[in-house]
Amino acid sequence: MKTSENGKQLIKSFEGCKLTAYKCSAGVNTIGFGNTYYTNGNKIKLGDKITQEEANKLFLDLLPKYEKTVLDAVKVPLTQNQFDALVSFCWNCGSSNTLFSMINEKFSEMNIVGFWTSHYIMGGGKVLNGLVRRRNAEATLFVKK
Predict the structure, then answer these.
(1) What digits encode the pLDDT tens for the residues 24-78?
(2) What's the rounded Cα separation, in Å, for the pair 3 and 46?
(3) How far apart are CA 72 and CA 27, in angstroms?
(4) Cβ 110 vs Cβ 139: under 8 Å
(5) Backbone φ, ψ for residue 33 (5° rounding)
(6) Measured between alpha carbons, how far is 143 from 145 in angstroms, rounded to an integer?
């Protein structure tokens, strides 16, 4: 399974694109569409600059890593919307054994959405409205038929 254009746009809309490295709200050096490292594994350093073309390529080059995270962790069939929502989540958070377990154990959508929208919403020790909006958008996409 691959991330659809809708899923890619979801990620990009929440990440935005910065061509000069900056510290994100979690204090991590970031560039492009929320990238914290380059394709070769090197970490982003403050002062790094890339072009829009390089940002687009970096996004596409790194996306399969997050798709693999979802495919390796989720053992039940997923719809395209569910897959896209989980890839967006992983792009932002890395992974969640708890969330993946809830999906694999076929918890109700209400329980999954409740967990999803109440966790992974903090950065730098504070609830961030952008993360609240993102978790809500991901969870909404996850349950969309």
Answers:
(1) 877 899 999 999 999 999 999 999 999 999 999 999 999 999 999 999 999 999 9
(2) 29
(3) 28
(4) no
(5) -90, 55
(6) 6
List % helix, strand, coil for the chain (3-state, nearest 5): 55, 10, 30
Distance between CA atoms of residues 85 and 142, nearest Å: 6
Closest CA to 37 of 80, 95, 94, 88: 94
Q: What is the DSSP letter of 74?
A: -
Structure tokens at 25: 């709200």
According to DSSP, the residues that pair with 128 across neighbouring strands are: none
Backbone phi, then psi, for 132, in 5-degree steps?
-60, -45
Catalytic residues: 15, 24
Sign of CA dihedral 25, 30, 33, 34: negative
Domains of the chain: 5-143 (1.10.530.40)
